[in-house]
Amino acid sequence: MAHGTSPSERQAAAPHHAPAGAEAWRPRPLKEALVASCGAIEETISTLLTPVQGEEAVLIEAMRYAALGGGKRLRGFLVLEGAGLLGAPRQSALRAAASVEFLHAYSLVHDDLPAMDDDDLRRGQPSTHKKFGEAMAILAGDALQTEAFSVILDPAMDLPADVRAALALALAQASGAAGMVGGQVIDIEGEGKALSLPQVTRLHALKTGALIRYAAEAGAILAGLPENDPKRAALRAYGADMGTAFQIADDVLDSTASTEVLGKTAGKDENADKSNYVALLGIEGAASAARDYSDRAKKALAVFGPEADTLRTLADYFVERRN
To answer: GO MF terms on file (predicted)?
Structure first.
């Protein structure tokens, strides 16, 4: 692509944008959009994890148990919304949304293990290791992680190889040692220690925020936008602030909501003697900080018009949710 072209020219030249004359992407009421995307993602996940016969059938059963039938699919929703904004192919976006949900599900399975957070409850149901045993839970998590990459690298994505490779690279960077797993290490090493606010912010920018940032940016990658494109940069910045807002709100909920409402064990950080935003800022201070990050996320979308209003509403939902 020639240097010196304008952002609008680069966008027009991107090979995966909606064709001229296609109906513009329009914002929808958030609840309606979440329900629709959740259903579509669940269907895609179920299709990709078809039950099998044979001795390995229990593995697929455990993977389906971990990946289906629960959760808001917020990361997958971010993928679909970004892809819709930029005209990326819907079926490719659905596979990418399923992929990030596989990655997220694997992280939850491993996070609940006795060697990690030792939690027997997830989404109101027994954790995967309580249902299938620790060994099978570890294997199911491993398989979900590899499936996340298999899905987006498969030619069935119906996108050029370089786009699929860029998506896989971004997911690997967000989920590995420089992202989610690295954040988990800092979290474990920080137990019983009084971490500072910058340390806690970095911890969660990696452990929680990196995958949310990837999900927000994935639609732009699917649409073929280069890294320096203003719209891709806007979605990336939006995702980064959304990840922080989400985690702060999660800390507030962990301190104020019941296990029944959360669908997972409440008060885990306090019980494990972990530093978090509530411990550092108090409940009101943490809630205020979450709103600040949510507002920053919305401002990052200035390059978009009203077609991004669903994402702006989502930023409010991230800090107002009750579970």
So the answer is: metal ion binding; prenyltransferase activity
